[in-house]
Amino acid sequence: MSWLKWCQIMQDGTVCGGGKKSEMLGRLYENPFFSELSPQQMGVAALYWRLKRCPKDFTVFRENDDPDCMYYVLEGHLDVFKNAKDRKGKLTPVKVAEVTKDQLLGELAIIEGEKRSATVVTAEPTNLLMIEEKHFNLLVKSHPQIGLILMKQVAKLISRQLRSTTGRYANTQLNERTK
Predict the structure, then answer these.
(1) Up-side HSE of residue 73: CA atoms within 13 Å toward CB?
(2) In whole angstroms, what is the distance from residue 114 CA to residue 103 CA?
(3) How far is CA 23 from the centre of its chain?
(4) Which of 19, 62, 70, 84 is most exposed by smallest CB count within 10 Å?
(5) Is residue 176 part of a domain?
(6) Higher pLDDT, 147 or 167
(7) Domain housing 101
């Protein structure tokens, strides 16, 4: 079945969160995270994800919040802050990362079931795809092939982030040694 035909079939329904399935399918189809899914699988996945539009300076989640959902960045820029103790023992937020288009947020908390490890705030108006933990678990259980594909994509993104972090750490260590 062609992508356009699938969109025509799905046009009548709505996604939880109020958007049209065709809009959600279009957004899924455009993004590399969902590139391994067939049009039919995207139609199923669209039922579980919803679009979240966030204004600038919106707190998506806070450090130590319970994990309730995972996000995929469609458009925008977010800053990640980790609380650190200063010399007096006072907790101070420190910017540790920036998140942009085609990156995940909150995936570790969902996979591990642990509290959020950082606070994430939008640096500009941002559009996110969001899937609640209960919907993610239901998707994986009800549609294991889709779940496997998405888990592989999560693993790829985590791997890229780890490689990037390792590279930055190595550069920092090298710069410290040459001082």
Answers:
(1) 23
(2) 20
(3) 18
(4) 84
(5) no
(6) 147
(7) 3-162
